[in-house]
Type I restriction modification DNA specificity domain-containing protein (marine sediment metagenome), 279 residues
Amino acid sequence: MSESVNSGWKEYELREVGVVVTGKTPSSKNPDDFGNDIPFVTPTDYSNYHKEVSFADRLLSSIGANKLRSKILPPKSVMVTCIGSDMGKVAINTIPLITNQQINSIISDIKVVDPNFLYYKLVESYDVLRSYGLAGTAVPIVNKTDFEGIEILLPPLPEQRAIAGVLSSLDDKIDLLRRQNKTLEGMAEALFRKWFIEEADDSWQSGRLEDYLITELGGTPSTSKPEYWNGDIPWINSGEVNNFRIFQATKYITELGLKESNTKLLPKGTTVIAITGAT
């Protein structure tokens, strides 16, 4: 820990603000470890979250959870993806859960850091987290030791809580708008189905997609080449297609990444369809 030039702010390593827990996956040879008792979170689940984690696509049984009891995270643990193309995503849980080994989590020492402030601080530190993982490895990864050594600046606790309170209020408003948008999207989908499917008549023509439009297949620049990433060109993965309308991307690539990969630059108004995976 060291003093900061900011009034009252201090620099801490993550190991100094709480206990870091790296998740673990039960053996697939033991199907009894999976069931319906405790959520089991992986990086794939993060596409379902805005900030808070209250569910997961997979669940462990009480047997599996007991085997990994040292990995159970209490509510308000800050969970960070630390391997692969999804590295650097942050969430905070509202219920006890277990993660896989691709996620490092911090159980906050509330005498040092407010969990909500820590969440926002790590969201802000996305590029720092990514830079740790791109150092000389084919697959981006931040191991537990390096993760614990990441440095962050913290103000006094009352200031942390005040800042986190303002940001949480804004997040709540954003979440409300997203839910309202989902409702409107559902209404639009129902109208589309009624007008263009249920009420279609003999004057309508059918054909193959290739008869009416141009199709392009996307691609992913190599994650082992940092010069391809953190540029100015928005890049999305299939999980973001769930957003229906895409106003901004969570990742960006460079001109070099675009030029030297199979990915394509698509014009505004393009219809994007996920063709692989759970999405």
About this structure: The mean pLDDT is 88. Residues 194 and 200 are 9 Å apart (CA to CA).
